[in-house]
Amino acid sequence: MILCITEKPSVGRDIARILGATSRHDGYIEGNGYWVTWTFGHLCCLKEPSDYTPNWRHWSMSSLPMIPPRFGIRLIDNETYKKQFKTISELILKCDEIINCGDAGQEGELIQRWVMQKAGCKKPVKRLWINSMTDDAIREGFNNLKPEKQYEPLYLAGLCRAIGDWVLGINSTRLYSLKYGEKGQILSIGRVQTPTLALVVNRQQEIENFTPQDYWELKTEYRNVLFSYTGKKFDKKEKGEEIIEKIKNLPITIKNISKKACKEGAPRLFDLTSLQVECNKKLNLGAEDTLKTVQSLYEKKVTTYPRVDTTYLPDDVYKNCRKILNSLTKFCQLLEPLRGEKLLKSKKVFDNSKVTDHHAIIPTGQSLPSNLTDIELKVFDIIAKRFIAAFYPDFTYMQTTVEAICDKYGFKATGRTVTSPGWKTVYSNEEPNDEDKKEDKDEDSILPDFVKGETGSHKPSLVKKTTQPPKFYTEGTLLKAMETAGASVEDEDLREALKANGIGRPSTRAAIIEILYKRGYIVKERKSIKATQAAKDLMTVIKEELLKSAKLTGIWEGKLRQIERGEYSPEEFINEIKKMVMEITVSVMKDGSDRRIITDQIKEEVTSEKKKGRKKGKKE
Is residue 449 predicted with pLDDT exceeding 80? Predict the structure, then answer.
């Protein structure tokens, strides 16, 4: 018998149906030479400190750092999990061969391998690797099973991530809690969560410390067009007024006119992070909710695997794109211009060298089931329209720049005329948000026909403006910052290049933000994410840059990706983490200050105790 182990019961049922296994048992399905069973996500985890030695059960400075000579795994203490693990173990003993049908990613590989290791598996194992849950994709996957050895680096990367998080997270949390926590307060520290929190705190400090400065821009109106002075802005109004006095009665002369044909390609297909950013912007959907929604769309077979960090498709997907487009019947009007034409095949979309285990998130071509929720339909529409736009021609326009001079002072006006809306047609019926409105206002002005050498009177004036602080992070912009290790990047090509050293994985970034909410380190006010006083205090006491620097943490993430590709030593990575924890422990223990961090929760408890004390005193 061949044993298939999936990551969820729903996936197990789908695979069993494809394989012809129809006889249901408690915890597995049997038939046609197969047993199909499942986990419930993680059944196993790394051992707790007390599993290694009783001395590590109690929190004490003398036991730090806790670094086991060899890491082990344990079953999660849950009766349902234990029962299912017993079923899996018994099937492993009786089967001839195993097919690992876990989710096709680093975490999925780790989940399945830990279960097989805990069960003492000695049977040969093959790997099912698929990008979508459609029947065709499952059948194709079973026709092209991979040897387990091929995914060894992926497993080792997941193992190093788990061990690194354990060593740094558990030791640093105990260390800082014991040193700086008040009344048993737990100060949560993590390899990814702490530098993410530092991004929020640093941005908030920039805003709070920001001092607005007035400045003035010199403009002049000629033929109903506003020209901008090409020199520097003025920090004092008087400087601008001096120039106005010199030029107000002099004619302005058109010095040069240049026209440039410009084009703008369609936005890239979605990886998980960019989808979360877009859903946050358009639907005000949180990162975790977007992940849950697109995971559900994947399990309902209408979109491809979601936990991806690439925006590209492999060349062999191109042959299926017409069929996928034709399935999007809701968008018939948008598809009409593509009918009868050869589909565009852009290098910004199809590039084998940019795709490893998975490709960008796209529709599968399956008909939409009737049980999609309203939010699932909205997220699907966002994915579908991005896919359609990828096959539209570029948005093209003529950029016109008019340079003028008055006395010795230069002025410039720019405008553009759309020559072909291209892919922007796909989004023409959408209500633009504030950012889009600003871009349109800045760029879409149409200039009259100027003639080089013409002159005329003009009306100069000063426009007072004030410098603005940076904006608070939203979940969308924080995800972008995590992806680029804190760098502020709008250019898509540069964003792609910085992904290698982003902090966290696409699949875990949303969970990290949720942890910061739960720990009381951040709060949401409308869309803005703000740091609590406890978060600010924590960042003040953390002196170790490796703990709170997004760039430095990004370097560690880059090494994990190298391990995944078999280009870096797992042993070296773990040794570096251990060394780092040793150095942090020594540094914190040397701190002779008596600083304490009190979260809002502790403050409420203290206030409550004081009130009880006052009431008791009155009674006495």
Answer: yes
pLDDT score recorded for residue 429 = 86
Taking residue 456's Cβ as centre, other Cβ atoms within 10 Å add up to 11
| pLDDT tens profile 7-54 | 999 999 999 999 999 999 999 999 999 999 999 989 999 999 999 999
25: helix, coil or strand? strand
Task: Return the structure tokens found at 286.
Answer: 């949180």
Give the span between the Cα atoms of 600 and 49, in whole angstroms: 29
Q: Return the number of other C-beta atoms located less than 10 Å from residue 607's C-beta.
A: 10
Res. 541: pLDDT tops 50: yes
Distance CA 367, CA 329 (A): 9
Catalytic residue IDs: 305
Beta bridge partners of 396: 263, 420
pLDDT bracket for residue 497 (50, 70, 90): low
Whole-prediction pTM value? 0.85
Q: How far from 611 is each of 605, 608, 614, 618, 620, CA to CA, in Å?
A: 10, 5, 5, 11, 14
Q: Where are the alpha helices (DSSP H) in 150-271?
A: 152-180, 193-208, 237-247
Residue 446 has phi, psi (to 5 degrees) of -105, 125
CB 406 within 8 A of CB 458: yes
Question: Up-side HSE of residue 247: CA atoms within 13 Å toward CB?
Answer: 26
Dump strand ranges (E) for 33-169.
34-38, 44-46, 73-75, 97-101, 125-127, 146-147
SS3 (DSSP) at 322: helix
Chain-centroid distance, C-alpha 84: 33
Q: Mean per-residue pLDDT for 466-483?
A: 94
Three-class DSSP category at 105: coil
Give the pLDDT confidence of 378-394 residue by residue, as tens digits: 999 999 999 999 999 99
Q: Which of 135, 156, 146, 136 is nearest to 101 (CA)?
A: 146
Token pair listed for 441: 């206002």
